[in-house]
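Hey, sorry to bother you again with one of my protein questions. I've been puzzling over a protein and I'd love to understand its fold better. Take your time with it, there's no hurry, and the full record follows here:
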Amino acid sequence: MNWLARGLTGAILGSLLGCGGLSTQGARYLKQSEPYQLQLPQFQQQLKQSSQLAPEQRVKSIQQLLLQVQTQHQQLRQLAPPKSVLAVHAELDALYATMEEFLKACLTGSGDMSDPKIKKLAGQWSEHLDKLQIELQKLESH
C-alpha cells in the first residue's frame, strides 16, 4: 500500500494559506486532522510487525492496534469539517472505518492475504488512501 508522505498536509496547508485559497475553518480542519493522517504509516508498521509474531502474540498486537484505530477514529469524528474540506474528511473517515474492518477480519479469519475478505479490505484501504491523496492534491491546486 502506498502511504501519504509525511508533511503532505502541512505543505498543502502552507501553500493554501499563502495564496488565500482556503478558508480559515478549512485550514483549521486540515491542521486538526493532520495527526490522524500522520498516524497511518505507524499503523501500517505496527500491522506489519504483528504479522511476524507468534499467533497468540499476533492476536494481542492486532487487538491493541484495533483499539488505537477505534480511539483515533472516534476522535476524528469529533472534528467539524467545513464544506471546503468535506471530501478530505469523508475519505479519512472511510479510511479509518476500513482499517477497523480490516483489523477485525484479521482477528476472526486466517489473518493473512489468502483470506478473501482481508484481501478485499486491503484493496479498499489502499483505494481510500489514494482517494485521500487526490482530495488533498485538489485542495492544493485551487
Remarks:
- Residues 4 and 133 are 7 Å apart (CA to CA).
- Confidence is low (pLDDT under 50) at residues 1-20.
